[in-house]
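Q: A small favour: would you put together sequence and C-alpha cells for a protein?
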Amino acid sequence: MTLVPATPDHLTQRELEQALWAAANALRGPVDPGDFKAYVFPVLFYKWISDVYDYRHDQAVEELGDGWTQEIEEEDYQTFLVPDGAHWDDTYGVTKRPGAALNKALVSTQEANPGKLSGVFGDVNWANTERIPESALRALMGVFARLTLDPAHVSGDMLGSAYEYLLREFAEASGKKAGEFFTPRHVVHLLVKILNPQPGDSICDPACGSAGMLVETVEAVKLAGANPDSLLLYGQEQNLTTAGIARMNLYLHGLEDFEIKRGDTFREPKLLDETGELRKFDIVIANPPFSLDNWPSSTWGKDKYKRALGGIVPPAKSGDWAWIQHMLATMKDDTGRVGVVMPHGALFRGGRESDMRRWVIEKDLLEAVIGLPNNLFYSTSIPVSLLIFRASKTVERQGQVLFIDARARFKPGRNQNILDDDDVDSITTSYVTGTDADGAGGVNVSLVARDEIQSNDYDLNIGRYIQTETKAEANVDAALAALREAQERMNSARAALDARLREAGFDA
C-alpha cells in the first residue's frame, strides 16, 4: 500500500502563511526585520527536510515490508539524508546551548548531502546569542515545532506559495534592500509570459536572487499543460544567504534538478560547459542590480569569455550594459531569447552605452523595449523598462524594434504599484500582436524601423517613438529619468557614508 499524499486538511493556505509569519514575529526585537529571512528560511527548510524524511521512511517501511533496508530507502525514497543526531527531534527542545546544537545539526545535514545542500543554510552563527538570543531561537523553533510539513499535511503547492508569501513580507520589511533578493512577482510573471518558455528549454538567471524567475518559468510551463520537469534551470547569485534562499525556494516548490552557483557573475561566471566556455541557454532572464558601479570594467576588455561584445566596454560607473552583454553572450545562437529589467537611463545615456545600443540594433538582436509604470519595485521608485532580445527574430520584425508604452497599466498598491492579471495580459498581447491590445490607448505601441532609430543616434527613449508624445516631451521624459537616477545614486551614497560614520563612532 502506497502512502498517497492527502489533501491537507490541517491548515488552510492562509493559516499556513500566518503560522510562518508568526515565526518571523518571534524574532521581532532582537533581530532586525531586514534580517528575518536569514533566520526563518533555514529553520523552515530544516524542519521540512526532517518531516519529509520521516514521511518517506514510513512510506519505505510500508511498501518494502521485510525487504526494507536502509540502503534501499536512501536510494529509492529519500531526497535528502538526515544523519544520526541531526534530526529536528534531536535539536528541538535542547535547553543547554540550543544555538550550538542547531549549528551542529545544520552542518551535519549539509555534509551528508554535499552535492545538494552545501552552503544552503547560509552563514548564520546560531550560537551567537548577541545576534539571536536563546529565548528568540526557542520561540522561532517553537512555531515550527507545531507544524508538520510533510506531503500528507502540506501540499507542495501550498508550501511553495507560503514561501513566496514570506518572500513578499520580508521584502516589505527590508525596504530598498529587498531589491537584492526579490523581484515583484507580477513583473516576473509579465517577463516570463513574454519569453514564453517551452518544454525542454534551458533557463538561466545570472543574478537570480531568490530564484523567483526560475520558479515562474516552471509555473508557466505547468500552466500550459506541459511537463515542467523537462526544463533545465540554472542560476548564479553572489550573496551567500540569498543563494541559499534560492535553492530552498526551488526545493520547496518540488524541484530537484537545477544548478544554483554562488559567485560574482562578472568576475567568475560559474555556469560553464564541458569545455570551460560560457554555457548557452534558450532563455536568459534577469533583474540585475541597476547601474552597478563596482563591476570589473578595467579588465572587461580582456575578458577571457569575450563578453565585451563589439569590443565595447560599458562605463565604469554603470554596469547595466555589461549585464546585457553577459546575457547576450550566454544566449543560444538559434533559439535564444533574453529578457532583462533595466532603468530608463540605459535607453538613452551617451558614450559607450550608446555604442552598445548601436551594436545590438545593427546586429538586429533587440526585439522590444517595454516601458513599465513607476514605483513597481521595492528597491527603486523610478520607472523601469524591459528589454527583449532574440537571436532570431520573426520575419515580420526583422530590421525593426517594437516600442511599448505601458506606463498607464497598473493598480495602486499598499506601498508599490502593481500589475494585475489584466495589466499583464494586455501588455503581453500588445507585445505578441504589435498592436495596442486595449484599443483605447491604455498601452501604446509602435514598430520602428532601424533607420529611424539610427537617425535618433540610437536613442531608445520610448517617448521618441510613441505617437502620443512629441519629441519635446520625450526629451523631458529622458531628463526626468536621468534626474531620478542621479537622486537615487546620491541618496545611496549618502546612506553608505552615514553607515561608515556610525561604524567609526561618529554621530551621523
Remarks:
- Residues 35 and 323 are 27 Å apart (CA to CA).
- The mean pLDDT is 88.
- Strands lie at 202-205, 232-237, 258-262, 283-286, 337-343, 366-371, 384-390, 400-405, 444-449.
- Residues 471-503 form the longest helix (33 residues).
